[in-house]
Amino acid sequence: MARRLYIHCGLHKTGSTALQHQMSRLADRLAERGVLLPLTSGRHGRRGVHHGLAHHVASARRFAAREQSYRALAAEIAAFEGEAAYLSSEDFEAILGEAPALERLKQLAEATGAALVLVLYLRSQIEYAESLYLQSLRMGYPDPADAALAAVLDTGTLRWRRWCYHFDYQAVVAGLEAQGFEVRVRSYHRLVGGSTASDMLDLLGQGDLAEDTAAAVRRNPTRRAGNIAQFARNALGEEAPPAEHLAAIDALLGDLRVRLGPELRAAFAARFDPGNALLDQRFPGLALAETLSSHAAEVPEGPRLEHVFSKATLEQVQGAGAPTESHLAQLTAMWRGADLTEAGSA
After folding, report:
1. Would you call the peptide bond into 340 cis, given omega within 30 degrees of 0 as the criterion?
2. Could you say which DSSP state residue 345 is in?
3. What's the gap between Cα 27 and its chain centre?
4. Fewer CB near the terminus (10 Å): N or C of the chain?
């Protein structure tokens, strides 16, 4: 069988960090079995983690500036006598619709002499939107949730600064295949062995190494606390209320999970179910359409993401003094009468 270069391209919020820790831990055993996790440039201190490459290949200038480094990476893979090499970064997601960047990635793969395979892990677009928005707040994303969600529904992507997050999975796969890439699509909701790491090992033909990966602790869980404060600081800057005032508002949410409301769930299903169904036909066992439809039918209790992280919330907190009980009650009602006495499910 021809040697293969597998590149794990994310997507984000599908267990990538835990996957990378597990694969790094198994790097020596994998090399003995013919699977290389390269040591060269872009690994950020761990074997088989190539965030640097993902960032650099996105820019012709940055990639050219590190040409010698990536020649060394290609040479390392070419010299390996095993059957496969493996690179990983969820930040490759940003280039999945960018033809010039993908061409640079293809040229790197050609220099290794291995057949390139792109591996994508896909999550229900509803859950992806919920989790990704909270992560984006921690990265400084300033827009209210309704603007972000409208962009996703309109364009199939969420773009900010150098990041591009993809929700129209069928369009991504079709675009990659049109450019000549071999693509392997996996469902985050139907992982072999119960974790992304065990699923990846199974894909690489090393499933017997996955015995303890399903029990691995999540390395990058969604943060529950402090999101209102972060949202206000991102949107309002110096005009944001004092930290102690924001902390009192954040306490309203406690450890609750903030979810999309029914209307947006229906809109996500209408927008993305047809494409998911096409992928299900192409890649048996995905069940992406079934999963999204199931999530769309849910009517979760608790606060709605589009109301919590909204212009109305900013108007309520901006310029106000210390929040009173009446003020907090108004916010609670505005967030759709959430039951704030019980923690949401994980």
Report:
1. no
2. P
3. 23
4. N
Euclidean distance between CA atoms 34 and 234, whole angstroms: 47
pLDDT of residue 320: 62
Q: How confident is the model at residue 217 (pLDDT cuts 50, 70, 90)?
A: very low
- pLDDT tens for each residue of 278-316: 999 999 999 999 999 999 999 888 899 999 999 999 988
Q: Which of 184, 160, 50 is nearest to 105 (CA)?
A: 50
Enumerate residues 6+ apart whose C-beta is below 8 A from 63.
56, 57, 70, 104
What pTM does this model have? 0.91
Fill in the DSSP letter of residue 239. G
Q: Which two tokens stand for residue 304?
A: 């709605």
Six token digits for residue 8? 């794990």
Interaxial angle between packed helices 243-250 and 325-334, expressed in degrees from 0 to 180 and rounded to the nearest 10: 50
Phi, psi of 100 (to 5 degrees): -60, -40
Tokens 């892990």 correspond to what residue?
121
Render pLDDT for 164-178 as a digit per residue (tens, 0 to 9): 999 999 999 999 999
DSSP output for 155-221: HSEEEETTEEEE--HHHHHHHHHHTT-EEEEEETTS-GGGSHHHHHHHHTT-GGG-TTTTTPPPSSP
Buried b (16+ CB within 10 A) or exposed e, 257-280: bbbbbeebbebbbebbbebbbbbb
CA distances 109 to 5, 76, 156, 306, Å, are 7, 12, 28, 42
95-154: per-residue pLDDT in tens? 999 999 999 999 999 999 999 999 999 999 999 999 999 999 999 999 999 999 999 999
Backbone angles phi, psi at 121, to 5 degrees: -105, 125
Closest C-alpha to 11, from 188, 155, 192, 215: 188
pLDDT tens for 255-265 read: 888 999 999 99
Q: For residue 87, which amino acid is it?
A: L
- Provide DSSP, 120-159: EEE--HHHHHHHHHHHHHHTT--S-HHHHHHHHHHHSEEE
